[in-house]
Amino acid sequence: MKSLPLLFCGIFFALAFSFTGLIVSGHIQLGALTPSTETLVPSEDQVDASGQPLMVMAEGETLFPRPAPGIAEIGKQVYIEMGCMYCHSQQVRRQGFGADIDRGWGPRATVARDYVLQDRVLLGTMRTGPDLAHLGGRYAGDAGRDWNHLHLYNPQIVSKGSTMPPFAFLYREQEIVNEPSANALQFPPDSEYAPKSGYEIVPTRRAEALVEYLLSLKIDYSLPEARIPE
Amino acid sequence: MSNNSQIVAPAADPYSSAKPSERAELSVIDESIRTPSIFFLISAIGWLMIGTVLALMAAFKAHEPDFLGAYEFLTFGRVRSAHLNAMALGWGSNIIFAVGLWIMARLCRSPVDHKGILMIAGVFWNIGLTIGVFGILRGDMTSVEWLEIPKYATPLLAVSYALIGVWGVMAFKFRKGDHVYVSQWYILAALFWFPWLYIVAQAMIIWFPARGVVQPLTNWWFAHNVLGLWFTPMALATAYYLIPKVLGRPIYSYYLSVLGFWALAIFYNWAGVHHLIGGPIPAWLISAGIVGSVMMVIPVIVVAINHHMTVVGAHREVWHSPTLRFIVFGALSYTLVSLIGSSMALRSVNEITHFTHFTVGHAHHGVYAFFTMIMFGGVYYMLPRLLKREWPSAGLIRIHFWGCAIGITIMVVALQAGGWIQGLQMNNASIPFLETVQNTIPWLKARSISGLFLTVGHIAFGINVFWMLFAAGAVRAKNGPTLLHKEGGVA
Questions:
Q1: DSSP per residue over A2-56, as a string?
Q2: Please, what is the Cα angle at B389 between B386 and B394, to 5 degrees?
């Protein structure tokens, strides 16, 4: 190995090999994946190579995954800038590999198509905290919203002994004028984290958006390749 | 020693500098690269200190979540990301520029010209990094692992890197003599692989995001290859250069070093996908990653044999030489961490270790116990030759070694034991999740303690370097190498 061009060729092709094998091939297979209806129906006029009717999406049915509401997109930005994904994954492993489904982290394994609408995919590689792929299914509605706000303000309020840091800087303490604000946090009675009387804790816009994002994380639909078991 | 060692040609023979004429030539080369190398070394140590402070904060926060909890810019997610980038691109890459370019220039026997451009590029590299790390702390980070630095700082980093990396390639192009030593392949390859990886990852994830899970696929191809094709080759190049150099004997086998290099080049870059085992990625891609990871056993064993057989019988010299004590610690860690890494890629093992602190322990095992320890060893050899004076204090070197060796051992054992338990409990749905979290706390406290050991080691290292740089007369007048034993030996 004395010649620069020969050595360079070896060095080039070594990496080109995996670049082609993993990245380019992966992109060819997955780079054009689109949302789909939950099930496919046989086509009336198209047939596949073996003469069977081609399976196509039924017309008029909803496509999944659905686009997230605008406020959730803003909330996702907060999630990104706080680095939540360094402790929370967003992927459900299949039944029989880990205990993701048994822990209620999602009704089915997530698949590539679940992520096609996301500009930044936050699969995550740590579970210092639980997986969040289906958080909005586990904590739904107003009760889920209240729980998440208290939990973000200080996790110890609803999850004593947690190692998650408090995000109290996303909330504002203010004096109650006339009536308490509609969105003020409802602390459990005698909570040591509650504000002094006459004051209340209200979420900032960023906290509101972050919670809407968390509630939008839901695996509540089937895909042709990943059905929610009955 | 095998007959194969005869194949190493005189020009590439690491102990050829026993001849006065070649010593003089090396001295000219050292002189030519002195200012840039020392600049990169000082930058690296600065980032090492910043990274250490950030690491201590992050480690402490992991078991005391309220610690500094009121400050948004110091929230855990940002501090740990700032730590990672300060260490990987600040300490890691600067020390590579300091030691790697110096080794390249020496082995190519080509003095460095136009070092002004190299210095300017180095200054901009560090400015870009400073902007990037501040950007992470102020909330502009990307939340893409190993690529957290915000968009506005990365082009500056890319351009500065290109201007630095090209120096190594130019040194190789204008080398003297016919023969090329294994360290030169590693350095040349790494200088070329790193920008390719970085540009592809930036383009496909940040600038023109690919659809869906192609992003994490690209992310882990990149992130694992930063370790495998940037840090690893540079550390191996340093070990391959300095073990024979200090011991005054050639490397055990030329053929094994060829096999080790090409096996690493071919297999390592497939391995990264093992970070996505169990994830929403087609099984064939994951399997390709697992095969690559397991095949890494070949280059690892080959390098282990080559290094071990070179050192065998010289253990006293290794223990007395500051350079070799660090480098052999790193080389042994390379074997161990790589074999653990290959087994972690097996689906049955990964099912337990994935998503746990085990992986964090493994990452530090590789980047610290292997890469960083070898680079420390490189500095212990390089700096006396650049400054033409000796290390002021053997005591500080001992504190440095033991602080780092004890610290990293505690860290790896604690995180991997704790992580393994965490993984087993997490996979048992009858144990409440919160309980599994609390069971990690004692292990995380042990990690914080290990961080204190590392901090002591880093401070001792920093003091010794700056003492040497701004040496008083007593240090300048010191004669003979600073060894970790009173009797003579090798440096």
A1: --HHHHHHHHHHHHHHHIIIIIIHHHHHHTT---B-SSEEEEEEEE-TTSSEEEE
A2: 115
pLDDT score for A1: 55
Q: How far apart are CA A141 and CA A40, in angstroms?
A: 31
pLDDT in tens, chain A (230 residues): 567 788 889 999 999 999 999 999 999 999 999 999 999 999 888 888 888 888 899 888 999 999 999 999 999 999 999 999 999 999 999 999 999 999 999 999 999 999 999 999 999 999 999 999 999 999 999 999 999 999 999 999 999 999 999 999 999 999 999 899 999 999 999 899 999 999 999 999 999 999 999 999 999 999 999 999 98
The answer to whether the beta carbons of residues B280 and B238 sit under 8 Å apart is no
- Closest residue by Cα to residue B201 from B157, B265, B137, B262: B157
Q: Which residue of B has its CA nearest to A95?
A: B278
Question: In A, residues 142-171, which contact B (CB 8 Å cutoff)?
Answer: 155, 159, 161-169
Q: Closest-CA residue in chain B for A154?
A: B66
Instruction: Return the pLDDT at B377.
Output: 97
Q: Is A118 on the interface with B (CB under 8 A)?
A: yes
| A35: nearest CA partner in chain B | B212
Of A26, A89, A115, the CB nearest to B285: A26
Task: Provide the CA A27 distance to its chain's centre, in angstroms.
Answer: 22
* Complex-level ipTM: 0.94
**B142 contacts in chain A (CB < 8 Å):** 80, 120
Q: What is the pLDDT of residue B305?
A: 96
| CB-count burial class (<10 Å; 0-12, 13-18, 19+) for B81 | buried
Nearest beta carbon to residue B433 from set A17, A130, A167:
A130
Q: What's chain B look like in SS3?
A: CCHHHHHCCCCCCHHHHHCHHHHHHHHHHHHHHHHHHHHHHHHHHHHHHHHHHHHHHHHHHHHCCCCCCCCHHHCHHHHHHHHHHHHHHHHHHHHHHHHHHHHHHHHHCCCCCCHHHHHHHHHHHHHHHHHHHHHHHHCCCCCCCCCCCCCCCHHHHHHHHHHHHHHHHHHHHCCCCCCCCHHHHHHHHHHHHHHHHHHHHHHHHHHCCCCCCHHHHHHHHHHHHHHHHHHHHHHHHHHHHHHHHHHCCCCCCHHHHHHHHHHHHHHHHHHHHHHHCCCCCCHHHHHHHHHHHHHCHHHHHHHHHHHHHHHCCCHHHHHHCHHHHHHHHHHHHHHHHHHHHHHHCCHHHHHHHCECHHHHHHHHHHHHHHHHHHHHHHHHHHHHHHHCCCCCCHHHHHHHHHHHHHHHHHHHHHHHHHHHHHHHHHCCCCCCHHHHHHHHHHHHHHHHHHHHHHHHHHHHHHHHHHHHHCCCHHHHHCCCCCCCCCCCCCC
Number of CB pairs < 8 Å for A and B? 222
Which among B162, B167, B166 is positioned nearest to B113, based on CA atoms? B167
Chain B residues near residue A30 by CB distance under 8 angstroms:
211-214, 217, 282
Contact B77 A83 (CB under 8 A): yes
Question: Which residue is closest to B282 within chain A, CA to CA?
Answer: A112
**Residue pair A210/A100 in contact by the 8 Å Cβ criterion:** no
Tokens of B459: 């401070």
Q: What tokens appear for B149 in the block?
A: 């630095």
Neighbours of B382 (CB within 10 A): 25
- Find the CB nearest B69 among A8, A112, A165: A165
Contact A1 B180 (CB under 8 A): yes
CA B457 to CA B16: how far, in whole Å? 34
